[in-house]
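Our consortium's second objective concerns turning raw sequence data into structural hypotheses that experimental partners can test. To show how far this objective has progressed, the report includes one record in full. It was chosen at random from the queue rather than selected for favorable results. The single chain below, 198 residues long, was entered without modification.
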Amino acid sequence: MIDYLMDIKPLQDEGVSNATIAEHLSARTAIGMSTESTRTTLQETGTVITDPVMVNQRSGTLIDFYQTLPAGDNQTLIAWFLSEVFGMTAVAISTNQYPRSLQFASVEAALPVEIQVVSEQLVAASGGRLDAGTTEAQVVEIQTTWEEAEALRVLVEAQENKYVTLYNQNIAPLIDANNPDDAAWQAALTNMATEWGN
């Protein structure tokens, strides 16, 4: 479930548009992509094979695809992704957070079909895309719903504060004085009711 305060407002505060936020929510994985699990999957499927002798030498279908790419974002992102997965320092890649969610999805869309199948395995291992299909209209609706609930909460809180103030002014003194007089209590309650609308 998408939470306005956690998932949307922080990005809006950074100036990210609702359309881009919707794309991010739709593309993000449930959890960050484990580098260990990703490394295993890439090697077992032959997508990226590490040379057992020359450890920094890699081959496989993703490497072949990478070498065909012109210099640009996709090539840069794949190189960064592989360095994170095989660098043994990062625990996870934040495909569940902006902007990595969109970057991974962008590269994924450009992959050949046989590598996309592997990419789907990586996404599934990261909990899948629980909010796939999120639209800009839904982002706006979630924000509007939160704002309406927040406005109501503020009004109710103001009433609660008014009650506490009037209670402290009218009822608390009777309790402090251990006063059991009905007339005094009725007068205090009447005064609370009168002052409530002021």
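The partners drew two points from this record. The longest helix spans residues 136-170. Strands lie at 33-34, 49-50, 58-59, 92-93. Both points have been shared with the crystallography group to help prioritize constructs.
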